[in-house]
Design brief:
Helix content: 25-40%
CATH class of the largest domain: Alpha Beta
Mean pLDDT: 96
Structural class: alpha/beta
CATH architecture of the largest domain: Alpha-Beta Barrel
Strand content: 15-25%
Number of domains: 3
Number of helices: 19
Number of strands: 25
Shape: globular
CATH topology of the largest domain: TIM Barrel
Radius of gyration: 23 Å
Low-confidence stretches: none
């Protein structure tokens, strides 16, 4: 008698091999049988006509703060993610001294758009070192599994204090201390180290992050800890200011530490060939014996614009900006006043207000041809006819007038999609080529981050709906390929060796998905973070069951209340 038997589903086991029909049996927290006819189960799930897959292993999230108070970690858990890896982009909350609590909150709010008021209210700060932070995470009940990486910016501030914030170069003693603390964190169970070297990442005050210009010696010193311990991956987001120089140190360091290295890869509208040059750099590094991989997104990295989100196309106009602190209902009422409408539309975007935005987001003030009506169900591969410019051309309004009236219409909750990267040619061709490349890893969902602008934690569901089932503007991907990308490939890269496949003896993390009815809902703004902090969430239909460690956590989209999740230590 098995504990659970999933009967008659289409089994997509995560290895990439052809799907097949059969049963999956679970005993305790392990998979007991995959395929064939299983014996009776105490609980049986009829999966006829549905997919049975491993749980998704999402390796790019920012739940570093939320994981200290929230056991569920939605919306990622709604979308079939059973393992989440956080500590990306060099930001996080450990190690930390008490005097730097506020600074790390400001850093996370600026870089990842997580409301500072929510972090200030929610974080208990009952840790200082990274191992203590892991112990706190391990002591909480959880719905799904989480894991963490060591973030560079808190580490640098912990060791260097104000010198790190001023972005001074690290001394040899500083580097040795960061190396020692990283090794300590890896031995305690961290899955690696991450940093960022980009002008896109700033504090709420507009300052660049502490590690933006860290020298090679500092990165080599920290990387040596991974080689010393023999564990973890080194991750990075970089502007690649000097592509040849950046790849030179990446290759040299990766070969020396004998550990995997990954960086985030997107295109740039002003340099469409950049991503292909960087992939050529990956292949050169690999040919020289360096384990270098590019992490890519499953759809364009774009921001959601609306009256309830953190940005609108009018956010840099002074009269509009003056209304932003008003409650949404009052703001909407003011915006509908004809005099206010005329005033805002008469203004140009303020250079000072634009300067607060990351460089790649500044065109939202003028690029009406690259802002699209999102719609419901949301369309993340819109053609030109859905742009504000094209829709306005069918009326007697200018694009800015049309956009203003559209956003202030109905209940004020309409939204636009502005693809920041990976949409330079107006379709998903670039995304397709990145995903198809064998030297890339699928990630960049950013669950828990960009709360007022982005909701890409739905990417696993989107990979199935768009890339497997629905895409009509270009080639699709095979089901088995996509499931492998979401499971065994991400698990294997970071060393989650007991999951990512459906095979006897592995951890029983399983999704049962009705692909025919799988549907993403329109994003919605909620104020359910601590202190009423806001976040975009996106619901989904079509997950018949999500199981973690042999225990159902969601059934037909409804949370069961079970808490089988845990902190996973490397």
């Amino acid at each position: 008698m098995h504990d659970i038997v999933i009967r008659g589903g289409t089994i997509v086991d995560g290895t990439g091999k052809a799907s097949f029909t059969g049963d999956v049996a679970i005993d305790g927290d392990r998979i007991a049988q995959v395929g064939g006819k299983a014996g009776p189960g105490k609980r049986e799930i009829d999966a006829t006509g549905q997919l049975v897959t491993p749980g998704w292993v999402d390796v790019h999230t920012h739940y570093d703060g939320q994981a200290t108070w929230d056991p569920v970690l939605a919306p990622s858990s709604w979308h079939g993610a059973t393992t989440l890896l956080m500590g990306n982009c060099g930001v996080g909350f450990a190690p930390v001294r008490k005097r730097d609590h506020e600074g790390l909150i400001d850093l996370m709010e600026g870089v990842e758009d997580i409301p500072g008021i929510a972090l200030a209210e929610g974080l208990r700060w009952d840790w200082e070192t990274f191992p203590e932070y892991l112990d706190v995470l391990a002591g909480m009940p959880r719905t799904i599994d989480i894991a963490a990486q060591v973030p560079h910016h808190p580490l640098r501030v912990y060791v260097m204090g104000d010198r790190a914030i001023r972005r001074e170069n690290a001394t040899s003693d500083d580097i040795d201390a960061m190396r020692r603390l990283t090794a300590e964190a890896l031995k305690a169970g961290a899955f690696g180290f991450t940093t960022s070297r980009t002008d896109q990442h700033k504090t709420t005050k507009g300052d660049l992050v502490p590690g933006r210009y860290a020298e090679e010696q500092e990165l080599f010193g920290i990387g040596s800890a991974l080689g010393e311990v023999g564990a973890g991956a080194f991750g990075m987001l970089s502007d690649f200011d000097d592509e040849a120089a950046e790849f030179a140190w990446i290759t040299k360091m990766t070969k020396a530490m004998r550990r995997p290295f990954w960086f985030l890869l997107t295109d740039r509208s002003y340099d469409p060939d950049r991503w292909r040059r960087l992939m050529n750099g990956v292949r050169r590094a690999r040919s020289e014996g360096a384990n270098v991989t590019a992490q890519v997104a499953g759809r364009p990295v774009g921001v959601i614009l609306g009256l309830t989100t953190s940005l609108t196309p009018f956010a840099a106009r002074p009269s509009f900006a003056a209304l932003l602190k008003l409650p949404v209902a009052e703001r909407l009422q003011r915006l509908r006043d004809p005099a206010m409408r005329a005033q805002i539309l008469s203004e140009e975007a303020s250079e000072d207000l634009l300067a607060i935005l990351p460089p790649l987001q500044r065109p939202i003030a003028t690029r009406w041809d690259r802002q699209y009506v999102l719609g419901d169900p949301p369309d993340y591969e819109p053609d030109d006819s859905r742009s504000i410019a094209a829709m306005a051309a069918k009326t007697n309004l200018t694009p800015e007038e049309f956009c203003y009236d559209y956003l202030t219409g109905e209940n004020g909750d309409r939204m636009l999609f502005y693809p920041v990267t990976n949409y330079v040619f107006g379709d998903h061709g670039v995304c397709h080529d990145m995903i198809a490349d064998p030297d890339t890893l699928l990630g960049l969902g950013d669950g828990g981050a960009h709360c007022g602008l982005i909701c890409d934690s739905s990417l696993p569901s989107y990979m199935l709906t768009h890339w497997v089932r629905d895409r009509h503007r270009g080639p699709k991907f095979g089901l088995e390929f996509v499931v492998k990308r979401l499971t065994s490939e991400t698990a294997d890269f970071f060393g989650f060796n007991d999951r990512g496949r459906l095979a006897p003896g592995l951890k029983a993390d399983v999704n049962v998905v009705d692909l025919a009815s799988l549907r993403l809902h329109h994003p919605e703004m909620r104020h359910d973070l601590p202190a009423g902090g806001k976040r975009l969430v996106q619901r989904v239909d079509g997950y018949s069951a999500t199981i973690v460690a042999g225990t159902p956590i969601f059934e037909n989209g409804v949370e069961t209340g079970a808490r089988p999740g845990k902190l996973v230590r490397a």
